[in-house]
Amino acid sequence: MLDCAIIGGGPAGLTAGLYTTRGGLDNVTMFEKGMPGGQITMSSEIENYPGATGHISGMDLMIPWPEQCQRFGLKHEMSEVTRVSRREDGVFSIQKSDGTADEAKSVIVCTGSAPKRAGFIGEDAFFGRGVSTCATCDGFFYKNKEVAVIGGGDTALEEALYLAKICTKVYLIHRRDTFRSAPNTIARVKAAENIELVVNAIPEEVFGDAKGVNGIRVKLQDGSLRQIDVPGVFVFVGNNVNNQVLIQADGSFLCDMTPWGEVKVDLSMKTSVPGLFAAGDMRAEAPKQVVCAAGDGAVAALQAIAFVDGHQ
User: Fold this and answer.
1) What's the total number of domains in the chain?
2) Is residue 122 part of a domain?
3) Mean pLDDT, rounded, of the chain
4) Is 124 a domain residue?
5) Which is catalytic among the residues 3, 138, 281, 296?
């Protein structure tokens, strides 16, 4: 039986693996069907990870992490976990796509989330080359330049305000003329002198060249097209939480979730189920930054060690 099963091999999962093994748990396996590293490996440049100075890609940042973890005894199993369940005796069952299952005393789920795509032409082709889903990660690259933000919810408006402090102008593009955000946030956006609301507008196409994005075309309510020349387009239309492993046979979730499918945790990354922890982008109110995911993984690992030690 595993002391701890870690589901997911991004920054949260790898850090959890490092801390659990180095902290004394003897039998820890990280289940990650692909290569470890997570979404950050797709980022072309990282400037905001502490200690990472100079030009470094997300892949370069993550390459040393698995080796460091494995040096302390973390095992990596390239299997797809289909479900995590818990028996009446408190033992967790880690069910895999090949029909086999492992047992574990504790589980840390770090399966992350993926930003939804808006679906316009060029969105995938220019992703990472001018199209972004993280203002905190990429906003600085557009300092003193103009950018476009797509979306009408809390995240889109909050990120537009963040970008407005860095960029000379922000075009906030929304398919309706009302926003799904807190009244105070809407008021702040409307009061910002360098945010232009482009409402009743549907993104049609992002265009550019080999160097990256040059602009975006949107369809207005009267059917005409408007071209907005910007080097950066930020898309905030929601997230798909990778919570499938927590769905039980009867369709319910193993632990308490938010209405948006995120895992509810406390400051110790504990879920509503004893011995089950969640870390990284899948947990509620996650900042969706590598450094934060790593911190979550460390906290969850320390709690998992205490849990296993207390149930020997």
Assistant:
1) 2
2) no
3) 94
4) no
5) 138
Residue 177 structural domain: 131-235
pLDDT surpassing 80 at residue 221: yes
Do the bridges between strand 212-219 and strand 202-209 make them parallel or antiparallel, or are there none, so unpaired?
antiparallel
15: domain CATH number? 3.50.50.60
Note whether 111 and 153 are same-domain residues. Answer: no
Q: Which among 137, 255, 281, 296 is annotated as catalytic?
A: 137
Q: Rounded to an integer, what distance in angstroms lies between the CA atom of residue 272 and that of residue 275?
A: 9
* Whether residue 137 lies in the annotated active site: yes
Q: Where are the alpha helices (DSSP H) in the chain?
A: 11-22, 58-62, 64-71, 135-138, 154-164, 183-191, 290-310
pLDDT, position 46: 82
Catalytic annotation present for 134: yes
Active-site residue (options: 4, 69, 110, 134): 134
- For residues 32 and 111, state if they share a domain: yes
Cβ contacts of 220 within 8 Å, gap of 6 or more: 200, 201, 226
Q: Does residue 121 sit within a domain? A: no
